[in-house]
Design goal:
This protein is an alpha/beta fold. The protein contains nine helices and 13 strands. It is globular and about 85 Å long.
Amino acid sequence: MSKRRINQQQSGRIKQIQAKRRVDDVANMHETMYGTVIAHYGKYTDVKSDQKTFHCKLRQNLGDLVVGDEVVFHLQQQKEAVITAIEPRKTKLWRLDERGQEKLIAANVTQVFVVMAPVPEPSWLLLDSYLAAIYHLNLTAAVIFNKNDLAAQSYAEYWQLYNDLNIPILKTSVVLKEGLAELSQAMQNQRSVFVGQSGVGKSSLIQALLPHENLTVGDLHEATGLGTHTTSTARLYQLPNGAVLIDSPGVRDFNLWPMSSLDLAQAFVEFKPYLGSCKFRNCTHTHEPSCALQSAFTQGKIALSRWHNYHALLERFKE
Ligand code: GDP
Ligand code: ZN
């Protein structure tokens, strides 16, 4: 077979394919749809659009896709759907992977609830580290104080402190079913995630908010026969009131990444009025003379725990 002949054959085939694509594109024009990624496992992605779930494949070269992404997809024959575009992300929840690279966890989250409890005892350092991350991700922060039925101590000064920083505190008890209505109210019109140390009751809260979902076992996927709720995949849920919750172990464990003293100081919002007034422009507010923050602290304008936690986090970043 001559080269030329193969080329003719090939070009004929290419023309055919292109023509078919155009026909397909025209046919599909009416079926361009928009939806939200609610689960993503292997080659497949579930997209919710108008209360219906579509099982989609990804067009090649689309890049990474995560739960919470808003996508454009096209319905094709045999009810198969293909995702063809990802809308720009408004916010990104990410973590650092083992190589120190940003690893996307979820997209378009708007609100983070830091869950705390009387047991395990609250870590205010952990809370402040979450608040710093949430600040830099442009998300809204709120605290859930769960297991309120066990609270021997009320931690009133702390709640006052965080209230003054515009962080709402919701007290809940899964056992007594208290505060759950208020919580779902606070989740309305938001896309929320729950973070916090292990044992504070995140799974219990989520299960209480989504009584009809089996969060631990996970349903078998029709096509693959594999479980869809594995440890690594996040999932997006809708509450009866329309509020949206994104959950997975990866989401719950999300943590602060190392940042500069300037970025960290900015995230401590009550430091803001004093930033830029220190003697040294690059003051880290640790040991420098004529530090405006140090004097604000000495005058009682910055809480001791927050001042300590700022320094503790800065130390940790050096390690
Ligand atoms: P997670 O690790 O944050 O997901 O925490 P879990 O949801 O697994 O809860 C840890 C433990 O705390 C379990 O034994 C729960 O039954 C218990 N727990 C969760 N919420 C409450 C609560 O409101 N009150 C009490 N007393 N126990 C709770
Ligand atoms: Zn300073």
